[in-house]
């Protein structure tokens, strides 16, 4: 891969940090099988069913699906997390698994991620796409499902997860 493609794929401006395939397969085995990637292109989708930026996966219903979301990490990442929370709270059959930068000091982390069913902090740093270097930030896998009625005071299950 040449330098300019690599910069486009991995720059925090484009936000396109492609999920490592082996890591995705582990998530698919553990939390899937996923049947919707609402945040993709035809070249990088992880599922047969996907939405592109032109279709705007944020504006579509995710209900009844087992959804994998690795959103653009720039400004606007909060909208994807809010959507995941709201779609799962509106329906009992929907699961949304997100691969996120572990920005635990942000408002959206406290407003939404802390209401997730599970949060798994990844030990070490992922190598996104075909990168040879590890990412300059830590990641977490966040599982949203309908949690109403499960706990008197909801507390997410928190654990650490190995990289693939
Ligand atoms: C981090 S990449 C994830 C790609 C792939 N799904 C994966 O997991 O490796 C984020 C993708 O979201 C796409 N995207 C950005 N805004 C979008 C939108 N509103 N609706 C659907 N996809 C969007 C980008 O084109 C990019 O391919």
Overview of this protein structure:
Mean pLDDT is 89; it is low at 1-13. The longest helix has 13 residues, at 77-89. Helix 3 links the parallel strand 1 (66-69) and strand 2 (95-101). The radius of gyration is 15 Å and the shape is globular. It has a five-stranded mixed beta sheet. The chain is α/β, with parallel strands linked by helices. The protein has a single domain (16-145), classed as Rossmann fold (3-Layer(aba) Sandwich), CATH 3.40.50. The chain has four helices and five strands, in the order H-H-E-H-E-H-E-E-E. Residues 15-19, 37-41, 44-46, 51-53, 56-58, 70-72 line the site of S-adenosylmethionine.
**Measured distance between first and last alpha carbons:** 22 Å
The total strand number stands at 5
Q: What are the low-pLDDT stretches, counting only 5+ consecutive residues below 50?
A: 1-13
CATH H-level superfamily title: Vaccinia Virus protein VP39
Strand order of the largest sheet: 1-2-4-3-5
What is the count of distinct domains?
1
Alpha plus pi helix count:
4
**Strand share of the residues?**
15-25%
The overall average pLDDT, rounded, is 89
CATH architecture: 3-Layer(aba) Sandwich
- Would you state the CATH class? Alpha Beta
CA radius of gyration: 15 Å
Query: CATH fold name, please?
Result: Rossmann fold
Percent range of helical residues: 10-25%
Determine the structural class based on helices, strands and strand pairing: alpha/beta
- Largest sheet composition: 5 strands, mixed
Q: List each distinct ligand once.
A: S-adenosylmethionine
Global morphology: globular
Order of H and E elements:
HHEHEHEEE
């Amino acid at each position: 891969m040449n330098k300019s493609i690599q910069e486009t794929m991995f720059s925090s401006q484009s936000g396109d940090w492609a999920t490592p395939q082996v890591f995705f397969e582990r998530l698919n085995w553990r939390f899937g099988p996923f049947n919707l990637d609402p945040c993709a292109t035809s070249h990088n989708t992880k599922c047969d069913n996907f939405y592109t930026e032109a279709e705007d996966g944020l504006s579509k219903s995710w209900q009844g699906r087992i959804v994998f979301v690795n959103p653009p990490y720039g400004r606007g990442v909060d909208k994807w997390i809010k959507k995941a929370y709201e779609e799962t709270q509106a329906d009992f059959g929907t699961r949304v698994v997100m691969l996120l930068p572990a920005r635990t000091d942000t408002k959206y982390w406290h407003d939404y991620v802390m209401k997730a069913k599970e949060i798994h902090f990844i030990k070490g740093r992922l190598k996104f796409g075909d990168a040879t270097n590890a990412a300059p930030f830590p990641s977490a896998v966040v599982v949203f499902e309908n949690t109403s009625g499960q706990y008197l005071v909801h507390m997410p299950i928190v654990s650490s997860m190995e990289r693939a």
